[in-house]
Amino acid sequence: MKKILLLNGPNLNLLGTRQPEIYGHTTLADVERDAVALGTELGVEVVCKQSNYEGQLVDWIQEARGQMAGIVINPAAYTHTSVAILDALNMFEGPVIEIHISDIHTREAFRQHSYVSYRADASVIGQGVDGYGIALRDIVGRL
Ligand code: DQA
Questions:
Q1: pLDDT band at residue 15, thresholds of 50, 70 and 90?
Q2: Which residues contact 18 (CB under 8 A, 6 or more apart)?
Q3: From CA 13, how far away is CA 6, in angstroms rounded?
Q4: Which residue, 24, 67, 72, 137, has fewest beta-carbon neighbours within 10 Å?
Q5: 53 a catalytic residue
Q6: What is the CATH number that goes with domain 2-142?
Q7: What is the pLDDT of residue 111?
Q8: Counting atoms of ligand 1 from 1, which one is nearest the CA of 11?
Q9: What is the pLDDT of residues 50-100, one digit of tens each?
């Protein structure tokens, strides 16, 4: 069975309690459980990882080469700062979908630029946590 890596970046471990007026009340555990269940429905194994550390995310993206069919990533704040994550994604051969829970284009100016968008095959933005399911369906359609 093909595997999809679902990667979440810094502070998303606190989803559900973190600024719920922006990110909602759903926890990361809920998001990951739903993603795994949807993956089963779509015929893929979803492997979920979260880290607050840029280097750890880079390591996981490197390890995904040859192992994972695609990557769904919410790089969180590293979206706007990390050339290292972009470079790691540029070495990955499969499809990459970027997802943001909030609408980064209507928030602070510094959130409106995404390094990951240079590599992402598609971006799902501002759909709340439903965006993870949209991203998953999209990536499976590309396999
Ligand atoms: C986010 C948006 C980022 O700007 C922010 O730093 C996050 C979450 C989102 O999902 O809306 O941590 O990626």
A1: very high
A2: 11, 12
A3: 13
A4: 67
A5: no
A6: 3.40.50.9100
A7: 97
A8: 12
A9: 999 999 999 999 999 999 999 999 999 999 999 999 999 999 999 999 999
| Residue 23 designated active-site | yes
CA dihedral 26, 32, 34, 37 (to 10 degrees): -170
Q: How far is it, in rounded angstroms, from Cα 76 to Cα 68?
A: 21
Distance 129 CA to ligand 1 centre (A): 11
100 lines ligand 1 (CB under 6 A): yes
Q: Which residues of 77-87 are buried (b: 16+ CB within 10 A; e: fewer)?
A: ebbbebeebbe
Q: How many residues does the chain have?
A: 143
Choosing from 23, 78, 115, 132, the catalytic residue is: 23
